[in-house]
């Protein structure tokens, strides 16, 4: 499962550390990750190990700013896909082994499951109360970003009349223009991606009829499934795909900002909002520093850096310019996925298996 | 000496506070128990509700049990938003369909494990509350009880119990404060008659032998009755004694008058110069003795009237005039000028005319007896609400050092044996009984002045 081949680390953001950054390919059991090291700007005294299922380019500005506050800290980041991070963390917890100081994952349901199983530590810090109520569970799992789930399209190839505004419009577009979009719509492979599964699960709960029709239309349009937002965004930008469904808004916006021909739509019927989760695992060796890092992520400074360089949306829902669709917070269409025990139902093994079976049947078997 | 006891107020307050504190402790313990029970009941219902929802989601498809965990069950449990949730679903064959394998079935050991139950347990090192429900399947392919076990940590219920207990504590605290404040107020109010009685007794004149007439609650009545009984007995004793003195003085007067007559007869006889000298001495001493007897009688009378006679309006000018007539004997050896200055309007005081006349007579008698070679001037006037009788004479007067003593009984018997030591003390007593007093002005621009002041309104005396 080595799918971390082409890393896109923004040259500007990483200029300071690129010379010293050590890219290591490590092999831990069946999983393989890349490890990136950010050496301490001052005299090295401490090491913070972050195991993350999140884009390095988005994290780098935050790491570097955090190192300005704690100059003695060397930061190591190990990257995973969400499901791999979850299984590695669950196994480490079961065996009482440490796995990093901080876990970052967009798949908050997995972090909630870990916390429920006693694999998390309580974190204390002056900025932690800044997290909204829906983004903090037990002071163990914190949501630190506001990620609207959007649809993207290639601005050069999709005519304005075709651009879907709602989930239902997308289903109807795929049915109406079946030939044009066959094999040219991309979304998550929910079997591989924790976020993909979480988003699809919430889609299914949000609307029963629309979801069924959308699933059917996507299956008939021979949807292309990928592990990660980035891969689909690459292909949409390149014109190989025309529409990407259920993409993380911040990644898409970052492409748009770099001038790629990507249009972003916040669906007007409802827009799911995901918060990337942060957690300190139970056996973390450096809990003090881990707590400070999570506190930094929620601090005004950390949020400012995140909003300007990494995630573009404020934790209060403030959206950057250039996005199509209504303002999610004021229009009341935002559906934040609450970080809480309700996500345990999403993580239930039997339920997951059944959902994936249904999904696979609709999406994959109908593909040629 | 009797041991000093703590005050009634302190006793009552301490005892009531003790009862209150004990009551508050009992109430708070009860509040804590009931709060815990209430919290458990509230959250147990959620736990059972979630378990039933999960049990309801079990379906038999093609002979196999299937479960799609309802999110709503977890949303129900998420109402206690900080608690960890553990669950396990068993099919009728006893196999785990989903959930935590290590979560034990609390009813597994029981004989008929088919009813819903909730109990405490530990899981993964934490105290949890476990609910267990079963659902009966009678499908042809699958018969038996599917079991749903849901467990939840107890943070939320502890927080609720703490919150409820805290609120009860505040209520009990406020009630306690009100009760203590009320106790202080009530005890003060209840003990007020004691203070009133004490003040009434403390403010009494030492000579006042009237009964205590403060209104008191029933509990204090025996004390007041006892005090009044004591006063009655004392008054009876005093009256008896005065009666005895009066009787004795009266009995003395008759033989004394006879003695004076015999001495006068003897003076007419021929006696040796030596014998005359002795005779004169006997005459003087006899005179003294009869005056003393008169004054003792007069004193007893004044004291008796003070208690027995109610005040009536008295014209002081008229009274003084008659007193002067009585006081200045026709047989006075020397010429003396007695003048009375009275205001034109009548000067009315409220009092006993007999006692007042006795008082004025005593002053004038005193002036005649001790000095006043040629002149006695009596002036009546009114100063604010006092009537004043000033008696001025041109004699040597009384030295200021003696002033305090001459108003006491037998305080300053005159050295030459002319006075009995009772006269001015009788006057002072009468003045006090009429709300006034007796004072002196030393010899200066005018002669020595004795000032008798009397309250115009008079005062109530028994």
Which stretches of chain B are low in confidence, meaning pLDDT under 50 for 5 or more residues running?
Answer: 458-462
| Rounded Rg of chain B | 52 Å
Number of strands of chain A: 15
Radius of gyration of chain A: 20 Å
**Overall 3D shape of chain A:** globular
What level of helicity do the residues of chain A show? 25-40%
Biggest pleated sheet of chain A: 8 strands, mixed
Count of separate structural domains of chain A: 2
**Topology-level CATH name of the largest domain in chain B:** Beta-Lactamase
Helix content of chain B: 40-55%
SS summary, helix count of chain B: 9
Describe the structure.
Chain A has helices at 11-18, 56-69, 82-95, 108-116, 167-176, 178-181, 194-206, 209-220, 229-238, 249-257, 287-298, 300-310, 343-347, 349-363, and strands at 23-28, 31-38, 46-53, 73-79, 102-105, 136-137, 141-143, 147-154, 185-188, 224-226, 243-248, 262-265, 271-274, 277-279, 334-336. In chain A, helix 2 runs antiparallel to helix 12. The model of chain A is unreliable at 1-31 (pLDDT under 50). In chain A, the strands form two sheets. In chain A, strands 1-2-4-3-5-14-7-6 form an eight-stranded mixed β-sheet. In chain A, strands 8, 9, 10, 11, 12, 13 and 15 form a seven-stranded mixed β-sheet that branches. Chain A is of the alpha/beta class and 368 residues long. The two termini of chain A are 24 Å apart. Chain A folds into two domains: 11-146 and 275-298, D-Maltodextrin-Binding Protein, domain 2 (3-Layer(aba) Sandwich); 148-273 and 339-363, 3-Layer(aba) Sandwich (D-Maltodextrin-Binding Protein, domain 2), CATH 3.40.190.10. Chain A contains 14 helices and 15 strands. Chain B has 462 residues and is α+β, with helices and mostly antiparallel strands. Chain B folds into three domains: 8-162, 2-Layer Sandwich (Beta-Lactamase); 206-308, Signal transduction histidine kinase, dimerisation/phosphotransfer (DHp) domain (Helix Hairpins); 310-462, Histidine kinase-like ATPase, C-terminal domain (Heat Shock Protein 90, 2-Layer Sandwich). Chain B contains nine helices and 14 strands. Chain B has helices at residues 8-56, 71-77, 155-202, 221-268, 273-308, 316-327, 353-369, 403-406, 423-433, and strands spanning 58-61, 64-67, 85-90, 96-99, 117-123, 126-138, 143-153, 312-315, 337-341, 348-351, 375-383, 386-393, 437-441, 448-455. In chain B, strands 4-3-7-6-5 form a five-stranded antiparallel β-sheet, with helices on one face. In chain B, strands 9-11-12-14-13 form a five-stranded mixed β-sheet, covered by helices on one side. In chain B, strand 1 (58-61) and strand 2 (64-67) form a beta hairpin. In chain B, helix 1 runs antiparallel to helix 3. Chain B starts with 7 loop residues before the first helix and ends in a 7-residue tail after the last strand. The A-B interface holds A 115-118, 137-138, 205, 338, 340-346, 348-351, 354 and B 66-71, 73-75, 77-78, 81-86, 89, 97-99, 124-126. Chain A: Pfam families: SBP_bac_8. Chain A: This is Iron(III) transport system substrate-binding protein. Chain A: Residues 1-32 form the signal peptide. Chain A: Keywords: Periplasm, Signal. Chain A: It comes from Ancylobacter vacuolatus. Chain B: It catalyses: ATP + protein L-histidine = ADP + protein N-phospho-L-histidine.
């Amino acid at each position: 499962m080595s799918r971390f081949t082409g890393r896109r680390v923004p040259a500007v953001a990483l200029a300071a550390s690129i010379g010293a950054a050590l890219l290591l390919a490590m092999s831990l059991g069946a999983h393989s990750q890349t490890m990136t090291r950010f050496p301490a700007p001052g005299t090295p005294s401490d090491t913070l190990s972050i195991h993350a299922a999140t884009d390095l380019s988005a994290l780098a500005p935050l790491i570097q700013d955090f190192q300005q506050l704690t100059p003695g800290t060397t930061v190591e980041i190990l990257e995973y896909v969400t499901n791999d991070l979850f299984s590695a963390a669950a196994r480490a917890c079961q065996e009482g082994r440490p796995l990093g100081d901080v876990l970052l994952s967009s798949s908050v349901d997995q972090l909630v499951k870990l916390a429920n199983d006693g694999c998390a530590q309580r974190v204390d810090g002056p900025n932690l109360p800044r997290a909204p109520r829906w983004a903090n569970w037990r002071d163990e799992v914190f949501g630190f970003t506001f990620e609207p789930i959007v649809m993207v399209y290639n601005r050069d190839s999709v005519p304005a009349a075709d651009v879907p505004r709602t989930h239902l419009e997308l289903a109807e577009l795929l049915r109406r223009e079946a030939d044009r979009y066959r094999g040219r719509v991309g979304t998550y492979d929910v079997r591989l991606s924790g976020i993909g599964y979480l988003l699809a699960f919430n889609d299914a709960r949000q609307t029963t009829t629309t979801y069924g029709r959308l699933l059917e239309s996507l299956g008939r349009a021979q949807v292309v499934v990928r592990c990660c937002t980035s891969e689909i965004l690459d292909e949409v930008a390149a014109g190989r795909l025309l529409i990407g469904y259920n993409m993380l808004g911040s990644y898409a916006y970052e492409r748009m900002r770099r001038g790629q021909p990507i249009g972003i739509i916040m669906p007007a019927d409802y827009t799911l909002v995901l918060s990337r989760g942060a957690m300190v695992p139970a056996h973390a060796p450096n809990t003090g520093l881990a707590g400070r890092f999570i506190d930094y992520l929620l601090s005004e400074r950390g949020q400012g850096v995140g909003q300007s360089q990494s995630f573009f949306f404020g934790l209060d829902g403030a959206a950057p310019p250039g996005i199509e669709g209504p303002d999610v917070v004021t229009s009341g269409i935002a559906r934040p996925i609450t970080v809480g025990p309700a996500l345990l139902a999403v993580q239930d093994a039997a339920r997951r298996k059944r959902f994936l079976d249904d999904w696979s049947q609709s999406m994959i078997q109908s593909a040629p | 000496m009797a041991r000093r006891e703590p005050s009634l107020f302190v006793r009552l307050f301490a005892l009531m506070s003790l009862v209150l504190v004990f009551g508050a402790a009992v109430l708070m313990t009860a509040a804590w128990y009931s709060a815990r029970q209430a919290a458990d009941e509230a959250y147990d219902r959620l736990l059972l509700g979630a378990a039933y929802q999960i049990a309801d989601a079990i379906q038999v498809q093609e002979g196999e049990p299937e479960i799609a965990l309802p999110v709503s069950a977890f949303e129900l449990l998420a109402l206690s938003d900080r608690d960890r949730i553990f669950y396990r679903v068993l099919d009728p064959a006893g196999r785990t369909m989903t959930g935590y394998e290590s979560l034990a079935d609390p009813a597994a050991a029981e004989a008929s494990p088919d009813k819903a139950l909730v109990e405490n347990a530990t899981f993964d090192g934490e105290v949890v509350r476990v609910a267990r429900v079963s659902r009966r399947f009678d499908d042809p392919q699958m018969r038996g009880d599917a079991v749903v076990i849901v467990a939840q940590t107890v943070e939320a219920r502890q927080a609720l119990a703490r919150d409820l207990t805290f609120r009860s504590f505040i209520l009990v605290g406020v009630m306690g404060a009100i009760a203590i404040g009320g106790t202080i107020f009530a005890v003060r109010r209840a003990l007020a008659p004691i203070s009133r009685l004490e003040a009434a007794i403390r403010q009494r004149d030492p000579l006042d032998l009237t009964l205590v007439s403060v209104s008191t609650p029933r509990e204090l009545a025996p004390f007041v009755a006892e005090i009044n009984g004591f006063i009655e007995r004392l008054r009876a004793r005093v009256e008896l004694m005065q009666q005895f003195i009066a009787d004795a003085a009266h009995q003395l007067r008759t033989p004394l008058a006879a003695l004076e007559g015999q001495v006068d007869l003897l003076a007419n006889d021929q006696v040796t110069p030596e014998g005359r000298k002795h005779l004169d001495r006997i005459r003087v001493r006899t005179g003294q003795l009869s005056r003393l007897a008169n004054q003792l009688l007069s004193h007893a009378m004044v004291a008796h009237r003070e208690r027995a006679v109610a005040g009536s309006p008295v014209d002081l000018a008229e009274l003084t005039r008659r007193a002067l007539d009585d006081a200045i004997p026709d047989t006075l050896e020397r010429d003396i000028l007695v003048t009375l200055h009275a205001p034109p309007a009548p000067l009315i005081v409220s009092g006993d005319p007999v006692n007042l006349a006795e008082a004025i007579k005593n002053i004038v008698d005193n002036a005649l007896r001790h000095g006043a070679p040629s002149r006695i001037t009596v002036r009546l006037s009114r100063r604010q609400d006092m009537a004043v009788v000033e008696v001025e004479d041109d004699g040597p007067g009384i030295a200021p050092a003696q002033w305090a003593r001459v108003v006491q009984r037998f305080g300053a018997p005159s050295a030459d044996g002319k006075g009995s030591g009772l006269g001015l003390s009788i006057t002072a007593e009468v003045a006090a009984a009429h709300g006034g007093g007796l004072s002196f002005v030393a010899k200066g621009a005018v002669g020595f002045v004795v000032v008798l002041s009397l309250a115009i309104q008079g005062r109530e005396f028994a």
